[in-house]
């Protein structure tokens, strides 16, 4: 915004300090003046002194009592001088005191200007004990740290997304070039290959759009029962599980939370789908459980499968992290399509958008256990 120039905060504080000190001095002098007026006659008088011996040269037999006008003539110059001294002290002392008090604010302003240029690694690190300025500086440092991490994550995500989107486009270009060079090539096989590559590109684009929607939190919240969502997801994926020889089990209590039904259904579907795909080639199983706690509702999806390295599990929710040990396989044991690597990333974003927590745990017997904890409504 274009604002008109005004007085600096330091100058306003200085004038405030000086004005308060001047007002306090004036009130004090006024109280003194009123107190003196109570015992001062309107005009000057001469009062005889009784205990003075006649002819005593050391003491006068009369006492002169000044009037109010005489007292004012003697008091006013001294009062003006005192007020002037207080004004000078208030301005000088207020200027120094305001500068000392606003010094942390200057550091915060400089750090803000540095961050505005795109440099997010700078930190204020204001020393001293906790007060309002230090709480503001610590909050600003925390915000910069989160922004720095978020920007770095977005840059990595953009680079990975560009790479993933470039792959199907490159494959499409190669297939078309081969078809152009070899007119006798089987067009049916070419169309089938292009269809598969195009499907992969569409799935990846839809996943990116869903991830962006969850990150923006641009959705209305309503009461959602996770147990019903889990039943809907498992019913939808039941034919897919049967085709892979995986048994689905769903159980649990009513678990109501506040959120967006479509996103929570996508979350559950992704978890169940991953549990089916990354499972044993034969006689695998997936368990979907819901339960309610005093302040939260919990959705747990666990599956059988190969033994997973805990270090690998810690990275599965990162974008485009598939994990070599979790390659998809069919019932015959042949490796399948590796996917876009965004399933758990979308789950993590939806959980974060709903103010929940996501926990991944490698089961000792093999496979993965995923726990989603969301806030329960009051």
How does this structure look, described?
- Helix 3 (132-181) packs antiparallel against helix 4 (187-216).
- With 378 residues, the protein is α+β, with helices and mostly antiparallel strands.
- The model is unreliable at 324-338 (pLDDT under 50).
- The protein starts with 8 loop residues before the first helix and ends with a strand.
- It is built from 8 helices and 9 strands.
- It has 3 domains: 9-119, no CATH class; 150-215, Helix Hairpins (Orthogonal Bundle), CATH 1.10.287.130; 220-375, Heat Shock Protein 90.
- A 5-stranded mixed beta sheet has the order 4-6-7-9-8, covered by helices on one side. It has a two-stranded antiparallel sheet with strand order 1-2.
- The radius of gyration is 41 Å and the shape is elongated.
């Amino acid at each position: 915004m274009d604002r008109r120039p005004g007085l600096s905060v330091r100058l306003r504080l200085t004038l405030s300090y000086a004005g308060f000190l001047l007002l306090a001095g004036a009130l004090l002098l006024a109280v003194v003046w009123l107190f003196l007026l109570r015992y001062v006659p309107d005009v000057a008088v001469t009062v005889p002194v009784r205990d003075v011996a006649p002819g005593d040269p050391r003491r006068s037999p009369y006492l002169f009592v000044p009037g109010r006008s005489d007292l004012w003539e003697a008091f006013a110059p001294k009062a003006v001088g005192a007020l002037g001294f207080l004004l000078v002290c208030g301005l000088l002392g207020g200027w120094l005191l305001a500068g000392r008090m606003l010094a942390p604010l200057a550091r915060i302003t400089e750090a803000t200007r540095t961050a505005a240029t795109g440099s997010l690694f700078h930190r204020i690190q204001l020393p001293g004990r906790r007060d309002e300025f230090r709480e503001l500086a610590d909050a600003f440092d925390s915000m910069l740290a989160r922004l720095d991490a978020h920007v770095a994550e977005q840059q990595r995500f953009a680079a990975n997304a560009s790479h993933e989107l470039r792959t199907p486009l490159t494959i499409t270009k190669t297939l078309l070039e081969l078809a152009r060079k070899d007119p006798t090539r089987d067009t049916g096989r070419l169309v089938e290959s292009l269809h598969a590559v195009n499907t992969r590109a569409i799935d990846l684009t839809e996943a990116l759009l869903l991830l962006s929607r969850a990150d923006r939190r641009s959705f209305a919240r309503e009461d959602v029962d996770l147990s019903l969502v889990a039943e809907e997801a498992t019913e939808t994926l039941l034919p897919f599980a049967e085709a892979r020889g995986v048994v689905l089990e769903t159980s649990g209590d009513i678990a109501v939370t506040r959120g967006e039904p479509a996103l929570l259904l996508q979350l559950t579907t992704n978890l169940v789908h991953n549990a089916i795909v990354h499972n044993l080639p034969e006689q695998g199983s997936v368990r979907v459980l819901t339960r309610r706690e005093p302040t939260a509702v919990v959705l747990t999806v666990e599956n059988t499968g190969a033994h997973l390295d805990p270090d690998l599990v810690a990275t599965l929710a990162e974008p485009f992290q598939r994990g070599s040990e979790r390659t998809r396989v069919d019932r015959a044991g042949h490796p399948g399509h590796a996917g876009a690597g965004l399933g758990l990333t979308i789950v993590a974003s939806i959980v974060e958008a709903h103010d929940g927590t996501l926990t991944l745990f490698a089961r000792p017997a093999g496979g993965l256990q995923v726990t989603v904890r969301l806030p329960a409504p009051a």
